[in-house]
Request: fold
Amino acid sequence: MTRDAPVLRTDPVRRLLDAATEAFAERGFHATTTRDIASRAGMSPAALYVHFRSKEEVLYQIALRGHQDARQIVADAPAGLRTHGERLSAIVRDFACWHAGEHTMGRVVQYELDALEPDHRAEVILLREQIEDDVLGEISAGITSGEFGTPDAKGAALVLLSLCVDVARWYRPDGRLSPAQIGDLYATTALQVVAAR
Amino acid sequence: MTRDAPVLRTDPVRRLLDAATEAFAERGFHATTTRDIASRAGMSPAALYVHFRSKEEVLYQIALRGHQDARQIVADAPAGLRTHGERLSAIVRDFACWHAGEHTMGRVVQYELDALEPDHRAEVILLREQIEDDVLGEISAGITSGEFGTPDAKGAALVLLSLCVDVARWYRPDGRLSPAQIGDLYATTALQVVAAR
DNA sequence: GTCTATATATCGATAGAC
DNA sequence: GTCTATCGATATATAGAC
Reply:
């Protein structure tokens, strides 16, 4: 039986990205040194520059992969569900739950984008807007079908996206709510927000 | 007619605190240099150290005053209002509106606390918990009186506080919604969140 | 209380051996 | 591809003139 875990564990790019994600989430991009990243990955300070051109490129790779993961979560959530209420609930549940379970990644993805170079930032923001469009589209469809009563689709989308994203700020693994419980709370909240006023 | 604006404008402590608030909000605490703060205040790099012991003490003074302001907003909002719905709406409206209008201060207050020394951070977190207790108390009172139907006071408080705080992250002065419009949207959302499920 | 000049430390990134 | 050693730039904070 072949095992690929050792191969993954010793992949230096993966190790550096994971180490940098932790460090950026804890202390922020500018407060994190390349020495700290390399040290967490069990490497010398110079080793980072064999795999990345700069500290900014490390952040770019993390932000890109993080946004791609988040987009996939939102795109997959409503699969197989028919009503717009079920679909929106699933999207908000999974998106909130992801920001809790992956709160280190989420913190980097949501709070360190200003440190990216303009071209990299623009590329990442495109992915963000796709996620926002997915949520707004589901809300608008529910309003058109008569299932949702709110007259303000953009306002509801703003509220629900903001809620999910902010989970990465306040979530603590030893807190009162598990990622799944947060997902349940936010799925319920989603239906309240799109209800008639 | 006496004018006090010139006096205020030349108060070096106030000028440095305002300059630092702007810089911290734009680039974060660690990415901001003491030279940048002093330069924005129209002073030499060394002048900052006449009024503050360190860059961290500048952040501490900003975080302290910002939290005191926020607490005052939440405490004053329900004055003169009788029903718990009116009172909670007013609290959420004013708190969200404050995070929009004072988004530079809000960003520092909400996102740079990790840069504080342990003693300073602990002092500021006490003020945060008072604000959280104010909101939770109003929700619990509304549930006890039968005015609110939600069975989950802590969940509702978590959702509403998170929403208001996150305004500081996404708000832009040239955006679609004014601070007052954001307050209206969030006041409406508050009543939806505490309604029966 | 503000300035110029600088001490001291640490950073991002590179050079060159193995 | 990883290491040790280090360069050049820049940071916080201080010293001392005015």
Remarks:
- Confidence is low (pLDDT under 50) at residues 1-8 of chain A.
- The longest helix of chain A spans residues 118-144.
- Chain A has two domains: 1-52, 55-193.
